[in-house]
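1st attempt posting a full record on here, be nice pls
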Amino acid sequence: MDYHDRQKFFEECEAMHDDRLAYYSCLEKILEKELLNERYGWRNREVLKYAINNLPNNIADNHIRPYFVAGLQGERESFYPGENLTHLCLWKVEQCGIEYCKHGLENLLNTHDLWISSAERIGIQEECINGDTDANLQRVYGLLDIESVDSFENLFVRILIVFMLSDNSDTAENALRGIYHLLQVFLELVTKVEEYWNEFHYRAKEWVLMIYELLTESGVMDNVLLESLVTKHINDLDFNAAFYSRLLLERLCGKKGFEMPIEKQQYFEDIPEYSTKKLLSVKSSEQHLTGTR
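the predicted structure (as tokens):
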């Protein structure tokens, strides 16, 4: 259906809204047809979204559950669980609110418990994990600082920062994507990112500067804000972060970054003024979340 056909369809459905029995019966048939004739993912399926969001959960779930079960068992020709589950969760959050989110999160955590325990065939002793003495957990708690969270986006950026600092490269990469997209929408969160700067290892500092560069290149962040951010790091203890900050000032802010005052650092002794170049290695005592260095 094109745009006008969809609008007419929605208007006709809304006209039936007062007759709940007929309205739900109509939406249920539409949902059955939409799921049966699926040939592509749910990203732009406005009719499907309307049917799911306006049917009571118990009715919609009677059709959604067997749809996913059949797909996972290979009984559907077209099946896109990754994309479809994402959109289903977004639609349901919009429809059901915070309680749905809490219930869904509890189910997800229970699922992880089942995976870890091999469906409860392996005994997991929760008392073995002491949150008060585990240094890594304490660092995570400190980074999240849940008590000071005042918004969902504030919480999300903290969680992403924790993931960025993990030793898992895939986790760190996905966290960086998340931080970039979150800052595209809530640019004011750069202030929160900057608060954690001294907690970052040297690679994370470079990654964050790359995000700033990309935000500026895409027009989300202006040069004035970029200059105010990177100027704070031109004398960073990590050589790469300091060098990159000065480079950004030169390239994007029209400033002579490499002529700005330089504070002497310990690693200067490893940079020869003349003679052959050598690899610059700065020793670090930083500890990652997994306990490795």
